[in-house]
Amino acid sequence: TMPKEPAVLRQNILDTTAAILACGIDPKKCFLFRQSLVPEHVELAWILGCLTNVPRLLRLPQWKMKRASQNNEGTVGLLTYPVLQAADILLYKSTHVPVGEDQVLHLELAQDIAQHFNKKYGEFFPVPKAILSEL
């Protein structure tokens, strides 16, 4: 949600990919791809954003905290990022999502959006359940 220098962004992508591979992820057994190259993520985020009301997003604590740290000038990208996260989850019809405590409310938003979409258009998205990490 914050502008990055293109060279820094490219390096971050390479560094993240290297870290994932270093953790033992086997690209022969799983798909490894750059999400920004999959237009369906933002397309679904747009559709879901049209079904999500602004007051619901304004109540998320991450919005309140980050907006405060940005001198109360939070961006639209910051406000709608949780809808993009919901699209990331729902696009793949995920049934379970590993999350930390700080992301539970964002997953609840994804659940609410899935239920709202299903009620309006028929059963399409599974309602994802949280897998809480134990730290």
Automatic annotation (TrEMBL):
UniProt entry keywords in alphabetical sequence: Aminoacyl-tRNA synthetase, ATP-binding, Ligase, Nucleotide-binding, Protein biosynthesis
Name of the protein in its database record: tryptophan--tRNA ligase
UniProt family annotation: Belongs to the class-I aminoacyl-tRNA synthetase family.
InterPro entries: aa-tRNA-synth_Ic, Rossmann-like_a/b/a_fold, Trp-tRNA-ligase, Trp-tRNA_synthetase
Enzyme Commission numbers on file: 6.1.1.2
GO biological process entries: mitochondrial tryptophanyl-tRNA aminoacylation
Keyword tRNA processing: no
GO CC annotations on file: mitochondrial matrix
GO MF entry, a single one: tryptophan-tRNA ligase activity
Pfam families per record: tRNA-synt_1b
